[in-house]
Design goal:
heterodimer; A: Rossmann fold; five-stranded mixed β-barrel; B: three-stranded antiparallel sheet
């Protein structure tokens, strides 16, 4: 079975072998046999040839259904119906297919009480720190600088409720380090700001909420899910501290984190 | 151009949430957000597509017993920011 399973949130992938085989190889450790959202990848030569990468398409929502459309691609994700379908021109690349799959995953995760977050998840003293921010904020740099620490992912993470608090799970949608570490309890949310000196800055709950919503891909584009998204982050912020982390391009920012969090 | 005679309304689909003493305003369509303090939140809630910015400045002036000129300047500056982020539009 071609199943992508991240922390029990599963996508059952269907499509031509030449599209699925590379994904199965890349995601070998994420396979399982549990049932989940059905994701159909359908080659369609009647579509115009892609004019660019699929990730340039922005999600559009109508009554809870996500449409992801651009020349060469027609994606529809209906989590309530348990199905996602991508019709793609045969010239679609592996990266294009992954973009659709991770968009479907973001919706499936949200429906199951979890959240996909733009952030680098770094494990320090057996707890996960999410260093978050949009493209260019320094997530990959901060992860690369954190030598010796497991990196759950340097771009996209799964956050879900745990028996005590919240936990962060690795995803295959980015770079990892020490892949044997796949999850850790969430300790803090740190918004990355590149700066001349390392420092932690206190921010209001509203500022943290706004920044975290902005870093919740796919879901933050849906007006109808906005109230639920706010609620979920407010639930997390009630239990987990959030700060801005000003950091320079050196691993010394961990000293600031240690001084504060112990 | 925005003036005190302008009338402004919230754009459909804008999501808001109170958090502490502040208001988070998010435009899902544009992926933009801003956080308003209590005064900003008061102004934002008065942007109903009926009251002019002058009306709103006067209400603010009465509520906070602030000089009218300052209230006018504050309202204009805030609404400029809201327009830039696409969360309100001129009626």
């Amino acid at each position: 079975m071609n199943t992508l399973d991240i922390g029990g949130i599963a996508l059952n992938l269907q499509g031509p072998e030449h599209w699925l085989a590379p994904l199965n190889t890349a995601w070998a450790e994420w396979q399982s046999s549990i049932a989940g959202l059905q994701v159909q990848l359908l080659p369609d030569a009647t579509l115009p040839a892609p004019g660019g990468a699929y990730f340039e398409a922005r999600p559009r929502f109508v009554e809870g259904v996500c449409y992801l459309e651009i020349a060469g691609f027609a994606g529809k994700i209906a989590p309530k119906d348990g199905i996602a379908t991508l019709r793609a021109h045969p010239a679609a690349t592996g990266g294009d297919l992954v973009y659709f799959i991770r968009t479907a995953f973001a919706l499936a995760a949200f429906e199951q009480g979890a959240l996909l977050v733009h952030g680098a998840g770094i494990v320090h003293h057996e707890e996960a720190f999410i260093l978050y921010g949009l493209s260019g904020s320094g997530k990959s740099t901060a992860a690369a600088l954190s030598t010796g620490k497991p990196v759950l992912n340097d771009d996209l993470l799964l956050v879900r409720p745990a028996a005590r608090g919240w936990e962060v799970l690795a995803t295959p949608f980015g770079r990892r380090r020490s892949p044997q570490v796949t999850a850790a309890p969430l300790r803090a949310l740190l918004r990355l700001i590149q700066a001349p000196n390392d420092a932690l800055e206190t921010i209001s709950s509203a500022q943290a909420l706004a920044e975290l919503v902005a870093n919740s891909p796919v879901i933050n584009a849906d007006v109808d899910r906005a109230a639920q998204l706010f609620e979920r982050w407010q639930g997390i912020l009630a239990a987990i501290p959030a700060y801005r982390l000003h950091f320079r391009k050196a691993n010394t920012f961990w000293e600031v984190i240690d001084a504060h969090f112990g | 151009m925005l003036t005190l005679d302008s009338v402004v309304r919230t754009v459909a689909g804008v999501a808001t949430r109170e958090s502490g003493n502040e208001l988070v305003v998010v435009s899902p369509a544009q992926g933009k957000y801003l956080v308003l303090n209590q005064t900003g939140a008061t102004v934002f809630r008065l942007l109903d597509g009926k009251a002019s910015l002058q009306d709103i400045a006067m209400q603010l002036c009465q509520k906070h017993q602030a000089p009218l000129e300052k209230a006018q300047a504050d309202v204009l500056a805030l609404v400029e920011q809201l327009l830039e982020r696409g969360v309100v539009s001129e009626s």
